Shikimate kinase
Amino acid sequence: MTSPVVVLIGPPGAGKSTVGALLAERLDVGYRDTDADIVATAGRPIAEIFIDEGEPYFRELERTAVREALEGHPGVLSLGGGAILDDGTRTLLTGLPVVFLDVQLADAVKRVGLDAPRPLLAVNPRKQWRELMEHRRPLYTEVARAVIETGERTPEQVAEAILDALELRSAAGSPRAAHREEQA
Ligand SMILES: Nc1ncnc2c1ncn2[C@@H]1O[C@H](COP(=O)(O)OP(=O)(O)OP(=O)(O)O)[C@@H](O)[C@H]1O
Ligand SMILES: O=C(O)C1=C[C@@H](O)[C@@H](O)[C@H](O)C1
Ligand SMILES: [Mg+2]
């Protein structure tokens, strides 16, 4: 049983998927996303689960998905934007290499437009995003081993900053070599 080499958290638009895929490539490991796991297991879109069963039920499914991914995925793992709201999920993250990708509202709007079908941002997305982040920022920070501000960085630069913050480089500067040494 090997837990992920990096766990990415952060709000929608922080770059979890983009940076996660880049990092996985740099480290020569797999990439996984618990939102995708939930959709695959439930066989329905997340928005539908939110509407039909409500957020508390979704957070339970998410806790299970996070537990399973932490137990069975040695690569890079991204969590859903609100996963850290659940006490049990936060407990599961204790001691792991969790990285909070931080982003300010203006950049999040530029990146995702905030017009995608996001259940928690359905009405007045800018105001909701701001309020949501006021509530969540302390929780993201609480579980994070490293916080990376993404606003002024390209996805490649964010990936590099993560490798540095988690010391995933060998003396030769190769993240793959450092990761292999750690696994040995
Ligand atoms: N550092 C960055 N600079 C500029 N654009 C970025 C950066 N990171 C991601 N993006 C762009 O922002 C958009 C959203 O990124 P991405 O889907 O990776 O975010 P996410 O955190 O996975 O969001 P979600 O919670 O919706 O899954 C994409 O179009 C991506 O190319
Ligand atoms: O920020 C959130 O609460 C969410 C983010 C997405 O990743 C999904 O997990 C879902 O839409 C909820
Ligand atoms: Mg994503």
In short: The first helix runs from residue 16 to 27.
